[in-house]
Design a protein that fits this description.
By secondary structure, the chain is an alpha+beta fold. The chain is built from twelve helices and four strands.
């Protein structure tokens, strides 16, 4: 468009629905985190959702206004010129050539690509949650060295005893005797009586922040309640870590299906279709599983990490699925627009041609942003940064550029 005001208006009108849908998928996916049992996870959801909502509002209001004010100077030094007879970008460029190659044999392409992603997913067999607060530092820290010194001369749990609350003081000795006979217990000592209850301190043999110690908690609770009644409670640092892991496992089982349902509904409304949203959601799930599997192998073989953080799958899923669907939304919204005048096959090729550079640039920027987490001293943050960066690049260059176009070209008009 020759007039900059008209250009901004047309761009906003045509790109606005896809940008709005993209922002809503992220906002809704993060709001689902508010249903988590772990407070740290639940608190992240609303904060992230508000941040994205504010950014979305700014990009749909402030940015267009600034572009209308500054005009083409905003794109300096590569200022675009008005060329009414220039070749249309939908029919040329590297991404159009890639689409043409995929279109020759779409079914073998998507089958081969899917097989490659599933091979990466095999790495999940080595996934374990042995990463704890005791071995989760990338460098040497004083607290870990102190715990190692304690474990060398005393039971590992001496630095952080497990606490047992017995509702009736008369049952305290029976509970202490039962705990002494439980596996992994080094010592049980009374810690006093207050009102109607008694408190015991249990010293565990293993490091209190190790998975070996976490695994002892169910047995301790069973033994304590058998002797002291159902009101007997087992707490302390080790039990707290165990409960957090149990809550995280529950969140991982409950939240992802809700996120997928919300994302599917938003894409279905945007594309006014059912098959396309199913395909897009399926591709981002495969992309996430492949990224998590490959990352697990890299964490073990390349970085030599002691294990994976228990919250890694959930956070990785939220970020990668929401962000991965973003790029598919940008692509398929344009494909839908082009298909209305050129048919599904040509619409797919034209949509890939004009969105390829934008989406790839966005993916590289996002991957670079998350990779910054790799410089932080905690292994858990390094892992989430690497997983998201790797997954975004995998989704950008493989899933969105090859797998999705091949599937749409193979399914044809039925995709709508």
């Amino acid at each position: 468009r020759e007039d900059r005001h008209e250009a901004v208006a047309v761009a906003l009108r045509r790109a606005g629905p896809a940008i709005l849908a993209s922002g809503l998928t992220n906002v809704c996916a993060l709001l689902v985190l508010a249903l988590a049992e772990v407070n740290g996870t639940a608190g992240l959801g609303p904060i992230g959702a508000v941040g994205i909502a504010v950014a979305l509002a700014a990009m749909l209001t402030v940015l267009p206004a600034l572009l209308a004010l500054t005009g083409r100077r905003a794109f300096w030094p590569f200022v675009p010129r008005y060329e009414p007879h220039a070749p249309v970008p939908e029919e040329r460029g590297a991404w159009r050539r890639l689409g043409d190659r995929v279109a020759r044999r779409p079914r073998p392409v998507w089958i081969g690509t899917l097989a490659g992603l599933l091979v990466l997913a095999v790495g999940l067999v080595g996934f374990d949650t042995n990463l704890t607060s005791a071995n989760g530092f990338r460098g040497d820290v004083e607290s870990v060295r102190g715990q190692e010194l304690v474990s060398a001369s005393f039971p590992g749990g001496a630095s952080a005893p497990t606490e047992v609350i017995v509702p009736g003081p008369a049952r305290a000795e029976a509970v202490a005797a039962a705990l002494r006979g439980a596996p992994g217990v080094g010592d049980v000592a009374p810690a006093g009586v207050a009102g109607p209850g008694a408190r015991l301190l249990v010293t565990l043999e293993p490091d209190p922040y190790s998975t070996e110690a976490f695994d002892l908690v169910p047995g301790l609770r069973e033994a304590a309640r058998a002797a002291g009644g159902p009101g007997t409670l087992v707490g302390g640092p080790t039990a707290t870590e165990f409960d957090v892991r149990e809550a995280s496992a529950r969140d991982l089982a409950v939240l992802p299906p809700i996120v997928l349902l919300v994302i599917f509904a938003i894409i279905a409304v945007l594309l006014r279709a059912l098959v396309a949203p199913l395909l897009l959601v399926a591709t981002v799930i495969v992309s996430f599983v492949a990224a998590l599997g490959a990352s697990t192998v890299i964490f073990d073989v390349v970085f030599g990490f002691p294990g994976e953080d228990a919250s890694l799958p959930l956070f990785g899923f939220i970020f990668l699925v929401a962000l991965g669907v973003d790029y598919n939304i940008f692509l398929m919204a344009r494909v839908r627009e082009e298909a209305a005048g050129h048919g599904t096959r040509e619409g797919m090729l034209r949509g890939l041609a004009v969105t390829g550079t934008v989406i790839t640039s966005a993916g590289i920027v996002l991957a670079g942003t998350f990779s910054v987490l790799a410089v932080l001293p905690l292994v858990a943050l390094t892992q989430i940064g690497f997983l998201v960066a790797f997954g975004v690049l995998l989704d950008t260059f493989i899933v969105r550029s090859i797998l999705v176009p091949a599937l749409v070209l193979d399914v044809g008009d039925r995709v709508w």
